[in-house]
Amino acid sequence: EEDDKDGKEEDDKEGLYDEREDMLQEDEAMLEGDLVPIRLMLVKLQNTSNTIKNSSTILLPEWFKILKDLRLKACMMPQDVLTHWNSTFDMLNFAVK
Q1: How many CB atoms neighbour CB 91 within 10 A?
Q2: Which pLDDT score is estimated for 1?
Q3: Cα–Cα dist 13/16, whole Å
């Protein structure tokens, strides 16, 4: 990769910029602290999705019953898959609905 004028590697060819690079250390620490509840929620959604999918005898029928009681379409909760682009968004979008 190319080096910029400060000797740092240019890591983004798409024009995206990580604003944390210009943050003061205490501001970055505050941001990381503010992100903790969001990360915890994501982990809970990921665990819920995986548990429902992998529990075909107990939770899966109950999941479909809850959806029916709420008058929602019977479907599986999308899983967050590291190699699938946009899967985190799909999972969050499903949870919000």
Answers
A1: 20
A2: 44
A3: 8
Question: In order along the chain (97 residues), what is the average pLDDT of each group of 10 residues?
Answer: 52 74 90 92 90 85 92 88 86 87
Q: For the stretch 38-63, what's the b/e string if a residue is b when 16 or more beta carbons lie within 10 angstroms of its beta carbon?
A: eeeebeebbeebeebeeeeeeeeeeb
Rounded CA separation 35/42 (Å): 11
Sign of CA dihedral 63, 68, 74, 75: negative
Q: Which of 95, 93, 96, 91 is nearest to 80 (CA)?
A: 91
